[in-house]
Amino acid sequence: MYDSMAGVTVVEVAGTRTARFAGKLLADVGATVVRVSGSEPDPYFDLRKASTRSTVTELLAGADVLVTDLPDSELAELDLDPAELRVRYPRLVVTLLSALGRTGSRAGLDAGEAAMQAASGFLHLTGYPDREPLLVPYGLGELQLGISGAGASAAAVWRARAAGTGALVEISGAEVLASYVRIYGAVGNYYDIALVRDGRRAPGSGGRWPFGLFPCKDGYVALIARTAPEWDRFLEMLGSPGWAKEPRYTDVRAMAIDYPDEVDALVQPWLNARTRDELLALAQEYKVPMAPVRRIDELTADIQMGYRGFFESVPLDGGEADIPGRPWVETLAPH
Amino acid sequence: MFGAPKHFPGGGAVADLDWLAGLRVIEVTTGVAAPLTGRILAELGADVIKVESRAKLDVNRVRVPNAATAGIADEETLRLEGFGLLHEASASKRSIRLDLKNPRGKDLFLRLLDTADAFVQNFAPGWLERLGLSVGGLLDRNPRLIVVSATGYGQEGPLSSQRAYAPIMSSLAGIEGLIGYEDGDVVGASATALADLNCSFYGAYLALAALHGRTETGGGRHLDLSQTEACAALVGEAMIEYARAGKSPGPVGNATPRGDREVVPSADGGWVVIEGLAKDSDEYRDLLAAGRPREDLVSSLRARGIRATPVLSPDEVVADEGFRERGMFQQVEHPVLGPLTTSSIPWHLDGAVPRVRSSSPLFGHDTAAVMAELGLSPAEIATLETDKVLY
């Protein structure tokens, strides 16, 4: 199990999380991933990889994939010209990952994580409307680019082995995030909801109140109701309050778009009186889409992820650390 | 450098890809997360058949028609075909109508799966078992089949039946609680549906990787993907940070640990991300005091070797030449709705993004063709229509 890409060799030349995460994902499915780096292995990203101080060119003859996020200038310093590599190693997949792409008018710009979020529309949607837009931390764009890099590399190796020819894979993190914004933005466009940041709430509550994060007694919960039955069960959970029968609070679109603060205020005292775990129990009982905003130190106590054996333990600074494992359970077909 | 792909007016290079030619994917999916996985495989060249029925519609086929489409077709057609998200998530596929609750429908579905390399599904855990179609049984029957099950929390476990919307999952995964300003209060990014789109691309990577594990006679597998766990896989660094510092990380705003990143307003009401420029420098004061509009501020900063990026709105992204010149958006013709702008799968493969082969197919458009491929005669197909097996 977890070995479907066994026999595939990946050479990883990473400058950022991007190629490190792509390499990690390929190692997670059994590829032999060799990181070419003088740096200490990262306890999360470099799990299940081999390290070497050999030069890249020494490794490429036996490799299926070169994955890198280094800019063209740094690749040139390593004597790695992608077009030349494709000629010298015709079966090699060369996967080039960057913030803004390696062709077109933005090619060559010095750019990283912040540029991916800013140029894609993603940053525009996060934060309070009366404050500056808010970046998502821990390399959201770099990691999404890494996932695309791993997926496209797996596809290219599949095709390389069938057709005998490698490929040039080139992906921009800004384009990956822009596709996310655009795809999901189709909902707002359809309902004529302006795509602007609105704090803890989705723009226009996504067309039906509630949709977002709400404070409670000991933190925050995510709370959503997308259908009439979910809204009915939500009201039942609240104890069928009298205000819910007033016409003003039966027009779900107006509540979502025209006066969501007013509706928030009606519900907030009830939420403030309850902890996240009490609210999760009620969500289960009433089948309401509501769940705690968890802190990082709480993750390993999650009963569902624990049940699935999701977390792994790695040595760290003489002790141990819990880290996310593979997010899928794999079962092989019978032989 | 990137070969000679075909260029289209107003767009970048787009190519019909045949990388997965000869592979067939069957999909029973709803929403975004798993349908988009299927679309990625389709645009790489797989024959992706979305199995639907009036008894089990994708949520994107039950939308109240909006003002923009009113009157261009009857209401039922608009409900089934009109929603924009449907065309982003399910472009480039075929669609067949088949009622899996009907015993003959179930039998045809199994025959269809016999011809498949992969099966992608994301309805609530337990629906396959209730139909007598457990994944274990499917793998017994076709040991080369790759099954990707994408659900909020996984197929089994104490919370597996919990309602799953993207912000719920990213909240449980610890991501939302990391997003906020420097005061440490949680803001989150619940509008972005990250848990869904992260899952789409994660699912594609898993399916593509699993192709390599097959042999002549076996090697199929079930990939029981949890959307929540796929989100939690994005906070590995934060977990290591917690293990090292003993303090749970929380929101810190836009600054990096070095403090040299911020998002500043421009004179024309826009925003710019600036990196690597100390706030107490003369340069900073000069550039920001000058009241420059966004594009001027960005070019002035870049001219000084400082990283700067304008904050584009989603509308600006669609109009932006930097995205258009690389083929980020494609026009496809829909038989009812007319021309649709669809986002490309943003993978430049040998110099071109995959062509969007079609908009989302009309509900059941390919039913007769696929049934004929299974060897059914026109008369048999007509009977199945009458009997509401093809429903």
**SS-based structural class of chain B?**
alpha/beta
CATH architecture of the largest domain in chain B: 3-Layer(aba) Sandwich
Number of domains as seen in the coordinates of chain A:
3
Q: Any low-confidence stretches of chain B, pLDDT <50, length ≥5?
A: 1-11
From N to C, what is the helix and strand string of chain B? EEHEHHEHEHHEHHEHHEEHHEHHEEEEHH
Termini of chain A, distance in Å? 13 Å
CATH class of the largest domain in chain A: Alpha Beta
Q: What's the domain count of chain B?
A: 2
Strand content of chain B: 15-25%
Shape of chain B: globular
- Measured as a percent range, the helix fraction of chain A is 25-40%
Largest interface: A-B, 149 and 146 residues
Distance between the termini of chain B: 50 Å
Shape label of chain A: elongated
GO molecular function, one term (chain A): transferase activity
InterPro entries (chain A): CoA-transferase_III, CoA-Trfase_fam_III, CoA-Trfase_III_dom3_sf, CoA-Trfase_III_dom_1_sf
Protein name (chain A): Succinyl-CoA---D-citramalate CoA-transferase
Keywords (chain A): Transferase
Structure description:
The complex is a heterodimer of chains A (335) and B (391). With 335 residues, chain A is an alpha/beta fold. Chain A is built from 12 helices and 12 strands. Chain A has helices spanning 17-28, 56-60, 72-77, 82-88, 113-120, 140-163, 173-190, 228-237, 252-257, 260-272, 276-286, 303-307; strands at 9-13, 32-36, 50-52, 65-68, 93-98, 167-172, 211-216, 219-224, 290-292, 311-316, 319-324, 328-332. In chain A, the strands form 3 sheets. In chain A, strands 3-2-1-4-5-6 form a 6-stranded parallel sheet, with helices on both faces. A 3-stranded antiparallel sheet of chain A has the order 7-8-9, covered by helices on one side. A two-stranded antiparallel sheet of chain A has the order 10-11. In chain A, helix 1 crosses helix 6 (140-163) and helix 6 (140-163) packs across helix 7 (173-190). The mean pLDDT of chain A is 96. In chain B, 34% of the residues lie in helices and 16% in strands. Chain B is globular. Chain B starts with 13 loop residues before the first strand and ends in a 5-residue tail after the last helix. Mean pLDDT of chain B is 94; it is low at 1-11.
